[in-house]
Amino acid sequence: MRPAGAASLSAKDALIIAKALGFLEPAPAGGTVAVLFGPDAASKADAEAIAALFAGGLSSGGGTITAKPVDAATLGDGAGFIAVIVATGAPADAAMKASRSHKILSITASVADVQAAHCVMAVQTDPEVDLTVNRSAAQEAGLRFAAALAMLIHEI
Length: 156
What we know:
disordered N terminus
């Protein structure tokens, strides 16, 4: 259980996300991840806490990844971002819309959102690393992962 005020994703989750982005084919050459938040203050606080995990940049196969909190109402089609992370309380379907529009990875901590095809990937690292990918959502978004990552993910 995370302490009050902590991000819904951990520092380890953020590292795994950065590494997973490096396994996309083609991998983005670094860039900014949108951390989507919903209309309430708690969602915005979670997005800010998640973005802070990327402060200074995280290394990915294609370069350095940073993150920026983005209001779901202003995300549009996700242009300018290399991925979208869904903070608690944010509409996951907005992230999937961006995935489809720009072939960018949509990421959440919620396996249920991945099962419902609202996001492509769920990341959980407690107690162990578990990456869940919705194969049909990934195909819909035009995303492919390197075979090395395919061996580590749980596809649904």
